[in-house]
Design a protein that fits this description.
mainly alpha; two-stranded antiparallel ribbon
Length: about 525
Amino acid sequence: QAIIPTVRPCDARVTGQYNKNLKTKAMPIQTTKMTNYRWVICSLLFLATMVNYMDRQVLSLTWKDYISPEFGWNDDSYGLITGCFSIVYAVSMLFMGKYVDRIGTKHGFLISIIIWTTGAIMHAFCGIATSGILADQWLVGFDGAKEALYDAGVVGISISTVSIYLFILCRIILAVGESGSFPAAIKCTAEYFPKKDRAYATAIFNNGASVGALIAPVAIPLLATNFGWEMSFIVIGAWGYLWMLLWLLLYKKPEEAKRINQAEINYINQDTDIYEKGKGKPSESTAKVGILRCLTYRQTWFVIIGKFLTDGVWCFFLFWTPAYLSDTYGYQTDSPIGILLIVLLYLITMVSVAGGYLPTYFVNTYNMHPYNARMKAMLIFAFFPLLGIFVHPIGAYTPLISVLFIGLIGAAHQSWSANIYSAIGDFFPKSMIATVTGIGGFAGGMGAFLITYAAGNCLSIADADADAFSFLGTTGKQGVYMAFFSCLSLLYLIDWCILKGLVSDYRPVVIRERSDK
């Protein structure tokens, strides 16, 4: 009687490896050396993420010293502009994810970056538009916009109001475009990588944000100082058009790409060879599934809860660490030591690449199912944020310890987030991946808004009255930091327990062949 051998994910690595479950020798997979074109695509995703983050950072690095003196902005002006961006970005992810699924990865990503690049460059013309609206002077150039307003005798409050609304418009366009980037990138990763490698690929391209954070503080002020703040928006934004050209030249679906051989196709599609009794095969439905229908699956809530409870932790540490270093140690963000500490923080977060590889290691070494490997890795990541409890007490001796601990928490979060997004590919057919990614992104954005807003209010109260807030022997702002560091650090373990209870074992979503809008 003939025995048909079963190929497990890790069997694709070594010809003739034994299957541990069936005790039969696996068939040879290939004799041709496998191409590695999937990593070229991953590099494109890395570059897109880097450009995305730099486009987002131009305003934050230029408004205080370059834009505010021209338009008369204050902190509330900047807060309103960035707040509008955050809300629009989160809400837009719901719809841009669905849109990317509808038109496909190539065109979805292309349209997304066209929108955000255009929005990024439009910021540079807000000065000219302000002079045109208030002084009817449109053809004045960047340098002549301010003089045109002055010559026309326009009062400062009008200049401030009109310029704020123009920048909000540009930020909305930027937010809508950038909201499609991550859903498209996750969908692309699912097309080009097997399940066991997706978190690793996601961690790699997601580190483009860290690299962008390291380049931006050097490149953007340099451009603004030497060529004007307008040119910093134009030059940084123009990188998006260069990326579009690379994307059009290099991206094709794996089965259509000429630079991929059959061995790599087999490796990418190895998940289709997995059959597990009682668990079924992942659905390959191409039905168009709407957002409301997605919410009927507990796997969608796995993503929603996984992002909602933890994205705010990352945003708190990311946004408030500079203020914490200033309030606790007296290091301003523009001081040499302050800059070095922030650079060190981002360098440490790049350790998340190793965290992204951990599920792949578990699959290759212990022959685990990708989902089980992912959950085991996430449990390990959930313990690292507990370092937040010790940030303030131990960090009192030196800021290096604080930055080290916060950097490790950031790296653990990035690894956690990469696996949450990769789990979407575990559960759902490829036709739904961007939609569910957008839903998860929206949930994460709302969670981040609530936590950062609460932190800001608590710190304002403590700043006005140092005795109004105390926690574990600390008072005032230090009490607020201690409370948030300690409480937020527990959320990952709580989140993991909820997720494990929600989806205790691998259960792919099987879509009935019907379409809903």
